[in-house]
Task: inverse folding
């Protein structure tokens, strides 16, 4: 569990897509407001994501808020444990594919173990997709809040609306959630709702599959959460997180070796590392500038070129994940000789 003092990490609060310093040693050992970010894959993120948690981290750091993200997990979903930003507090309580109903069996233990001052919970997408009714979802929220308060009667709660186009009845459920928050809120333990399903949230721009956020969508989710934290007195000024466009920028790099007068290009590792759905590659003769670009490929993870004229070749990759397409990644140069 890593603790953070915003003033010592202000360097991380540059552009929304900027990579932070490598490693966790930059986190200062100091106390601050304990924030547990809970949810499903929208909160956990996938390999090859920044995540909205990182965007929130950047803003709290910029505003010099002493804080500590807490929770039982640190990794994104996918298996390679690869975020697009490093050197930040990745602790969280999110699990891809989970439901609010499933987490009713875990929240008491997580509250006891991590004692958050603030609990930010974005659930409901998978509940609604699995056929849970609006009324049943509200009952689950009631139980979740009650269990959290049983451990920390003064916990502050930020609940998140459902935005997924695949979640049935999510508009009515969001309206019911806002009404429930008013009913459950107390001066000691306020309950507020992050306005995620707002007109500003564009499923085409802010998600890549009508559910999971693009880097641009991450900034809007973090903005809405931070606005509620400001209302609770945790953030001292108006948050400035949302960006009109943030590119997806995995540094995909090929493994290239020369075999005779051919090049063998492999991209299996980098495809898995950044959870790319499709890849394509190009190789360029450095002297002549002649370039060959392959079609997008979902299933193949390597190829061998035909015999190439002698010379130096630059090989680079490009990745896509549904509607997101990266820039061309770092190039690898190999020399092809006559023999």
Result:
């Amino acid at each position: 569990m890593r603790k953070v003092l915003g003033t010592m990490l202000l360097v991380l609060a540059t552009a929304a897509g900027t990579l932070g310093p490598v490693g966790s040693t930059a986190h200062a050992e100091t106390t601050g407001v304990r924030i547990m970010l809970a949810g499903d894959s929208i909160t956990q993120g996938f390999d090859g994501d920044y995540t909205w948690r990182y965007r929130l981290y950047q803003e709290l750091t910029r505003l010099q808020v002493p804080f500590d993200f807490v929770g039982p997990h640190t990794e994104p979903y996918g298996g390679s444990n690869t975020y697009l930003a490093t050197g930040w507090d990745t602790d969280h309580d999110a699990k891809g594919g989970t439901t609010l109903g499933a987490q009713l069996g875990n929240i008491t233990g997580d509250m006891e173990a991590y004692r958050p001052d603030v609990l930010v919970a974005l659930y409901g997408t998978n509940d609604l997709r699995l056929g849970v009714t609006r009324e049943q979802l509200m009952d689950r929220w009631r139980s979740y809040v009650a269990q959290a308060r049983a451990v920390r009667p003064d916990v502050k709660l930020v609940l998140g609306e459902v935005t997924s186009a695949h979640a049935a009845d999510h508009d009515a459920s969001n309206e019911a959630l806002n009404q429930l928050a008013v009913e459950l809120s107390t001066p000691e333990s306020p309950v507020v709702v992050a306005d995620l399903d707002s007109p500003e949230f564009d499923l085409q721009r802010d998600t890549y599959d009508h559910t999971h956020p693009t880097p641009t969508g991450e900034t809007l989710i973090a903005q809405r959460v931070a606005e509620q934290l400001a209302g609770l007195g945790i953030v001292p000024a108006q948050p400035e997180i949302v960006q009109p466009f943030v590119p997806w920028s995995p540094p995909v790099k090929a493994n290239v070796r020369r075999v005779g007068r051919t090049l063998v290009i492999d991209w299996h590792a980098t495809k898995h590392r950044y959870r790319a759905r499709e890849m394509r590659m190009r190789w360029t003769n450095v002297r002549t500038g002649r370039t060959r670009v392959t079609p997008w490929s979902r299933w193949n993870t390597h190829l061998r070129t035909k015999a190439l004229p002698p010379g130096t070749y630059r090989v680079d990759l490009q990745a896509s994940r549904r509607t997101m397409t990266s820039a061309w990644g770092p190039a690898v140069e190999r020399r092809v000789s006559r023999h």
User: Anything to note?
Assistant: The chain has two domains: 6-231, 255-336. Residues 278 and 320 are 5 Å apart (CA to CA). Residues 2-30 have pLDDT under 50 and may be disordered.
